Amino acid sequence: MNIAQAVDDYxxxxxxxGRSPHTVSAxxxxxxxxxxxxxxxxxxxxxxxxxxxxxxxxxxPTVHQDRAGRTRAPASINRYRVTVKALYAFxxxxxxxxxxxxxxxxxxxHRGLPPVVLDAGExxxxxxxxxxxxxxxxxxxxxxxMLLTGCRLAETAALNVGDIDLDARVxxxxxxxxxxxxxxxxxxxxxxxxAGHIGGARxxxxxxxxxxRRLSTRQxxxxxxxxxxxxxxxxxxxxxxxxxxxxxRLYNATGDIRLVQQALRHTHxxxxxxxxxxxxxxxxASVAAIA
Length: 291
Description:
The chain is mainly alpha-helical and 291 residues long. The chain has helices spanning 3-16, 21-40, 51-58, 61-64, 74-93, 120-127, 136-149, 153-157, 188-198, 217-230, 239-254, 257-264, 269-272, 280-290, and strands spanning 164-165, 170-173, 182-185, 209-210, 213-214.
């Protein structure tokens, strides 16, 4: 099969699976680099690619350097391996190729630095914050929602008022990473904050809006960055850092990695294990307890 056609089919498959636009875009970008390499070596057919071709691709400047000529991080280079292997796994499962040449590509397990998270004092400061301006209550509810549920940026931005059940203290997520509706639990504190924000808004209205229009993910990110700084927190906190903070705090409170996996809605517990870091304060207290 023609490589360009195979790539198009695979990207449509990812979209049909409910992968996020960001994920599909990342695969498209990496596979475009593979297509460009194949074009430059006169390889047109997916089935004619050899292990040697893949080794040459992984050694190419396209993989190892960005457009500015800077060396890519090991995790970024590894992503190309993962992407090409995924393309061939898709093609092999559908009998589009007779053989899979990607066995030679050994994906490296990359364990990066622990994510930047808020500590207990910083979380308490944000929950108790009173942000200035007409949008202060909305921004406070937005940050607290992400911080106390662990919801992703896109999931939060997609919420409507009717997705919140204050009596049951549950939020229904319509736009999840896997594509299927899901739910998260609201603590009594968060339910009170959200109730104050909603007021008498109609069920079909966006939960977080400006001028009646839903906040975009970019707007949410900017709000988080600005308001965290206003609270006197100097760490490089992003919207996703709030999810990391929720997960770390939940693990430190329970020690139950499976519970954290369920709360974050991870398919594989290996994805969640990054949060199973030893808290220095718990370590110190444990050592003192047995001395």
